């Protein structure tokens, strides 16, 4: 598996979560509130600038979906292990409106997520 390239999306940012399966997996399915192991890259919708990547750190990350931004909580369930999915997330489902205290507040975000394992 190689680090994905996130394609720049022209036009205005979406106002709702956009889920696009790049590769459909064949393994266990992620469930709401479950714990998953993923590789991911995140870019800002407007600039295409990468702000975070597990690939850059050279290792996957394991976490419960409950602790994540709403766009991940809504966008990962239904994925199957081995799948790669792109989530385009409006600010309301990411880090909130501008001025909400996070450096990504007010920004639409794009993540490409590889589901490595489902732990619960």
* Most strands sheet: 6 strands, antiparallel
Average pLDDT works out at 94
The total of helices stands at: 2
The CATH C-level name is Alpha Beta
GO molecular function, one term: peptidyl-prolyl cis-trans isomerase activity
Keywords: Isomerase, Rotamase
Organism: Nocardia bhagyanarayanae
Protein name: Peptidyl-prolyl cis-trans isomerase
Please summarize what this structure is:
With 120 residues, the protein is mainly beta.
Give descriptors for this structure.
120 residues, mainly beta, Chitinase A, domain 3, 2 helices, 33% strand, globular, isomerase, PPIase_dom_sf, Peptidyl-prolyl cis-trans isomerase, EC 5.2.1.8
Explain this structure:
The chain has two helices and six strands. 8% of the residues lie in helices and 33% in strands. The protein is globular, with a radius of gyration of 13 Å. The chain has helices spanning 54-57, 70-75, and strands at 18-23, 35-44, 50-53, 61-64, 84-89, 109-118. It has one domain (18-118): Chitinase A, domain 3, CATH 3.10.50.40. With 120 residues, the protein is mainly beta. Strands 1, 2, 3, 4, 5 and 6 form a six-stranded antiparallel sheet that branches. GO terms for molecular function: peptidyl-prolyl cis-trans isomerase activity. It catalyses: [protein]-peptidylproline (omega=180) = [protein]-peptidylproline (omega=0). It holds the Pfam family FKBP_C. Keywords: Isomerase, Rotamase. Belongs to the FKBP-type PPIase family.
């Amino acid at each position: 598996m190689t680090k994905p390239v996130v394609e720049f999306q022209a036009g205005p940012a979406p106002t709702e979560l956009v889920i696009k399966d790049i590769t459909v997996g064949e393994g266990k399915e992620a469930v709401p509130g479950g714990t998953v192991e993923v590789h991911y890259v995140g870019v800002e919708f407007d600039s295409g600038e990468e702000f975070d990547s597990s690939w850059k750190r050279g290792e996957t990350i394991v976490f419960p979906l409950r602790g994540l931004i709403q766009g991940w909580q809504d966008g990962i369930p239904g994925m199957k292990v081995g799948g790669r999915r792109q989530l385009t997330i409006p600010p309301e489902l990411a880090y909130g409106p501008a001025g909400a205290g996070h450096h990504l507040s007010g920004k639409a975000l794009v993540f490409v997520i590889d589901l490595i394992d489902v732990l619960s």
